Amino acid sequence: MRPNTSLLSSIGALVGLVASSEQPDSSGLQVPLSSSDEICVHPSYQVQIISSSPLVMYIKDFLTAQECAHLRAISINSFRHSVVADGKRSAQRTSQSTYVESDHVVRCIEERALAFQGHDVQPSQLEPLQLVKYAPGEHYHFHADWFSDPAYKLAVNGGNRVSSFFAYIYVRNDTTGGGTNFPLLSPPVSDRWCDVVDCDEPYNRGLTFRPVEGNAVYWENLHPEDGSGNQKTLHAGLPVTAGEKIGMNIWTRQAPLSDEAVAGLHDYPDL
């Protein structure tokens, strides 16, 4: 069956981030927004269905340019080499990552992610936002975001990861490669997708999203019938061949995360 590519909605919310005062510093980077800008006005964004099983949606303009610049500014010196499920560095994942400290911009993005998922998802179910940076040659091999090890999905720790957003917050102008590949999903048919989907990717390699700054991919990780992990959500961060890409993970758990669990996430193994 072809994926449903109909437009779901163009959503404009009343509350979101106003960030027009953010200006570049002498290095060309945007400087963090000041506390006087704590008004949240969500951007209008468009949502399109890529797959219904698992549910995968593409979100155009999920982040504003000011939000992307702010996230870069507050995280510039905090990246470290990413680890995998055993807490160690691996050739499977060669990117760098960092958790983002909460501020009014981060809270605005979190509100947007919660509203997208409906009224039943609580703020306490969100993990802290994580940024991942890919330089030339860096990648993250095929993996799923849901946990297979029972030790990582205990109810006291919030359970498993119900859903994922992966948003592109920075894509250098000369960037090539660095797509997000779902090898078990069929790519859409229409060439109107080619601005965000790599239409040159061989069909048998599945679906590859191009890194487009400000846009995001959303998917649900678990089978709704029994809560088990959906193998079709297997995906990879393909190698950047030139330039640089920074993405953002927003993960939602099945249940609230305790304060202790949130505090421990900074040393928590990534999958």
From TrEMBL:
Required cofactor(s): L-ascorbate
Residues of the signal peptide: 1-20
GO cellular component: endoplasmic reticulum
Pfam families: 2OG-FeII_Oxy_3 (PF13640)
Domain (Fe2OG dioxygenase): residue spans on this chain: 125-254
GO MF annotations in UniProt: iron ion binding; L-ascorbic acid binding; procollagen-proline 4-dioxygenase activity
Keyword Iron in record: yes
Protein's recorded name: 2OG-Fe(II) oxygenase superfamily protein
Species: Lasiosphaeria miniovina
